[in-house]
């Protein structure tokens, strides 16, 4: 009997341990001990506060629970559990694991990318004594007594001060004890950064219910006319709306803050703070009626039929074919099943028109999630998705990490877009591929849509891995634009003065103005001029941190580095030879804007590039102004190619196509075709026939011919043949490995050592190490190794496992000290 009681007592006292994911680039989860008083609150996916290292405090996510202590180190106690319900779902953790394994990154890096900043707590380190409190010093141990005495003298202590005072590093249990006893507080302590948005509403005291009481109240305020105005305004507003915001009452009554405060002090009015959503402005009327064309209806039927046997379907629809209307119908069908929909866009700020269209259709069921939102707005969407309050989530690439519960459909619009790829920092994931795996985890259907699909996606569709639907007709009466090519070589011969605009383009611009139509001009380089050069000695200003020339921006009057953000004043005198003959070479969107305004003074021009859209709402404002025809010319970079729909645009001018085609990258031709086709697709999206003028030197290039003929199939076939011959995707997988070091000699030596290790393991599959096109960024020199792995007959999992072992061997070699390695799986 005694033995049985002892076993029961032992079971009750079994210590619980948790494996947690820390927001750090460490290769493993970390084990912590759970205090008995917190054991019942433990659940996978909840956030916990933990100490890691000497004195750092972090928010971590519970990954696993167990009763087994770590073998190699003593587990510290978790400090606290933050959530009543799990913030991260088990399905999300499975997605995190997949991203970690596929993209060869760390789980903590995935956590950093996934969680909104407001859900990761701020850790500050100042402590103060609680004000106006008698401390029972007899209840304190010696070390706690020392801390309180020091606080009484200093008023405030840093954690490092407490460490020095006590002569020990482990001080968090002491601080936790003092916090529990209520004798200290942590100023700017571990606090939630997410705070719901609140708004003040005004209520009339319930004692003034009947009309007679209201009349007497107004009479009593005869000598306070401003207060009387406020009450009258309240009574008027209350007839139309149930809730009256403080600001609305002030505006309607004109009474002023002091009069309103007097009414509140007299308890005539009561102020009530309510939580309101940050996500929506005015309520919008839902607009659900539109009729699909015969081609659209056939495509919709085909998508639904193919979803019966395929989890992923590619919709290849030409520009302006009405793909968004098909998405809306599919969303409606999914909502009837009470499922959630994820609608991914390449850059949410660049597709505000689609946001507006979905909002008009589905109202507040649509939630938007992207980096232009502030921390609190992102956290609010996270909570609403977790609770199932938002059914349609429209987002950029990071939206794949939201806590979906019942996901039924994933739409990836413009799936070819490079913006879906995260390049820095890790995890260097591709949102399209991650979304496909997310759909697999939820048994959801995935629709990929594009007028110019990525070659890998089109290959998978042709091979039968994905379903395939083609929509080759434009919606309504619109037809594909008329595309013509103008030779810049011939134009230069015929002109005395050099201009960026051919005669044909200028003529079409003027014709458009005469017909009260609009023009889009595309130049895929921002700034005023890409390079300054001394005509005497050839000197070019370069970035002090990167191996690139500086770009002149006329708007700021400075030279900018587009890699690290370095800026310096423009030069008028060459610092090398003293010459004053400084020339501009090349041109960007700023210079195009300036020259056109000089040639055609009546042109009303707006510019759409990274520099003009840095503000939260700047993109939407520019697009709205252009859509309302306050401007008749839009000059922009590739931003103008993505998801924009303007009824009055009839002319597109591509200022210089050669810079796209001649870029040194294996996807240059594919991307040139895609970008030129997408930009061209902005023209003639209603009844008018659009005209596209492509200016180029290499007018006979096959890509330009394919764009003129709208011939995607020909582009795909020629590209596929070349890629198969030269061992590139979709026939081979690529893994890019960058070796970086602050010393140029060292980076070459380290890269050579890694290259030898890789070639011993993978042989001819390894290319390099080589110096990349930009060989230094942010003061780090770079060497690159490319690993090509055939898709047929080779296990990519085994390749990645072997590569991981090699990288560990490389990093533990003392000869490679100071070097670090970046791995990018599918670096395109």
Detailed description of the structure:
By secondary structure, the chain is α/β, with parallel strands linked by helices. The protein has 6 domains: 16-90 and 110-119, PriA, 3(prime) DNA-binding domain (GIY-YIG endonuclease, 3-Layer(aba) Sandwich); 126-187; 209-275, no CATH class; 294-471, Rossmann fold, CATH 3.40.50; 482-528 and 587-722, P-loop containing nucleotide triphosphate hydrolases (Rossmann fold), CATH 3.40.50; 732-825, 2-Layer Sandwich (Alpha-Beta Plaits), CATH 3.30.70. It has 26 helices and 33 strands. It has a 7-stranded parallel sheet, sandwiched between helices. Helix 11 crosses helix 12 (323-336). It is globular and about 90 Å long. Mean pLDDT is 82; it is low at 1-11, 187-193 and 278-287.
Notable features of this structure?
GIY-YIG endonuclease; hydrolase; 828 residues; alpha/beta; 6 domains; disordered N terminus; metal-binding; seven-stranded parallel sheet; six-stranded parallel sheet; helicase; PriA_3primeBD
